[in-house]
Amino acid sequence: MAGINYPFNPIRSGLGVGIPVKRKVFISYHHDNDQYYYNEFSRIFSQSFEIFHDNSLDRAIDSTNSEYLNRKIREDYIIGSSITIVLCGSEAYKRRWIDWEIHATLYHKHGLLGIILPTCQQNFESKYLVPDRLVDNVNSGYARWILWTNDSNLLKLEIETAVKNSKSNAALIVNSSPKMKRSLS
Q1: CA-CA 20 to 30 A from 49: which of 16, 112, 151, 169?
Q2: Where does the chain have alpha helices with state H?
Q3: pTM of the predicted model, to two decimals?
Q4: What is the DSSP string of 151-185?
Q5: What are the structural domains of the chain?
Q6: For residue 80, what pLDDT band results from cuts at 50, 70 and 90?
Q7: Is the pLDDT of residue 185 over 80?
Q8: Which is more confidently placed, 83 or 16?
């Protein structure tokens, strides 16, 4: 189980010029625990971004074949977006669907941004407990992460920075660890 320290210094590089009107954003989150934050995210940012999510993949895709499920995630949910935002709440790091969605995002070399929710747990070293695959890619410099915010300008900047990273830093992707076989809770 990995963690990320906070604070960090977001890159301020003048990316505000030429931002697309509506960036297509895939949201990965633990439906049982973090639906409230998904709803808030949608309410606050739906004017700025085209937001879509998995519609609870475990019910939408009726199969136990993990390779088939992973292909469906890549083809039906991740393709069409330019970035995946992972809402990191209390148990996001334990969820196989979130791990699989991050894996598919990296497979397609899309942007990856973690948002630490107020409910995110910390370990004894005060590191936030977030999905290992996200930690690997934040540490490599490919992915980004921020604390939960209502600031549309900050979120746009972070999204554009993550998308820019995905186009120029694909060599930094860390996606070699095995996919989770089952959720940990």
Answers
A1: 169
A2: 31-45, 57-60, 66-72, 96-107, 132-140, 152-168
A3: 0.81
A4: -HHHHHHHHHHHHHHHHH-GGG----SPPPSS---
A5: 21-172 (3.40.50.450)
A6: confident
A7: no
A8: 83
